[in-house]
Amino acid sequence: MAASSRAQVLRLYRALLRESQRFSGYNYRTYAIRRIRDAFRENKNVKDSEKIEELVSKAKENLEIIHRQVHLFVILSKSCIHLIKLAHAVIDGKK
Asked: A Pfam family for this UniProt protein (predicted)?
């Protein structure tokens, strides 16, 4: 693997781990981190440049998915908190 390719893979690995750390839920966070580490360990001895490019492409797609899921969780958790507060206000108003 060329040095630039190795550096690119390491940057991608760190980015995946960093983004996974942003999951608010412990189970989601630990699962994502475990899967990332396992996948990179499983493929650490791949020498075929085409296979490496395929794996890098797949990892980039997964990074986008993780990024999207993290933001979705943030939005949904804020919405849930707002709905709970609204429900409490409605219940308190009826008393």
From this structure: Complex1_LYR
CA count, 13 A, side-chain hemisphere, 93: 6
- Residue 86 confidence (pLDDT) above 90: no
* pLDDT tens digits, one per residue of 10-43: 999 999 999 999 998 899 999 999 999 999 999 9
Query: What is the chain's length?
Result: 95
Model-level pTM?
0.77
Tokens of 94: 């009826």
Ordered by start, the domain boundaries in the chain are 3-94
Q: What angle do CA 51, 42, 54 make, to 5 degrees?
A: 20
